[in-house]
């Protein structure tokens, strides 16, 4: 995982890793401490990992603000790249 957000590639890399791990459950506004395993209720991240990722998300929001990037649209785009478009209409046989 990258350590800081300096470029759009850094931003995309960080979001891709987090979304790849959390799947469609990810939302940019949520703290990483909020994510838990559905089966066990155990945290998805250690307290140290969650804190580091929350700081990266703060950097991501600041980068987006400064560079006119919509973090929500980018997150959705990455989710669709990884998992397909869950909102696409399904063909009925």
Based on DSSP secondary structure assignment, what is the total number of beta strands?
A: 0
Which structural class fits the helix and strand makeup? mainly alpha
> So what's the oligomer here?
single chain
Strand content: under 5%
Distance between the termini: 43 Å
Quick structural gist:
Helix content is about 55%, strand content about 0%. The chain has about 90 residues and is mainly α.
Q: What are the SSEs and their pairings?
A:
Layout lengths: L7 H15 L24 H21 L3 H13 L10
Helix pairs in contact: 1-3
Can you walk me through this structure?
The structure is a single chain. This protein is an all-alpha fold. Helices cover 53% and strands 0% of the residues. The protein contains 3 helices and no strands. It has helices at residues 8-22, 47-67, 71-83. The longest helix is centred in the middle third of the chain and has 21 residues, at 47-67. The radius of gyration is 14 Å and the shape is flat. The N and C termini lie far apart (43 Å).
């Amino acid at each position: 995982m990258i350590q800081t957000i300096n470029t759009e590639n850094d931003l995309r890399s960080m979001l891709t890793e987090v979304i790849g791990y959390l799947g469609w459950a990810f939302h940019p506004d949520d703290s990483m401490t909020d994510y838990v395993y559905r089966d066990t209720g155990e945290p998805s991240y250690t307290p140290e990992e969650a804190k580091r990722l929350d700081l990266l998300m703060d950097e991501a929001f600041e980068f987006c603000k400064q560079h006119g990037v919509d973090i929500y649209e980018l997150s959705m785009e990455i989710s669709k790249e990884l998992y397909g478009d869950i909102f696409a209409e399904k063909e009925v046989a």
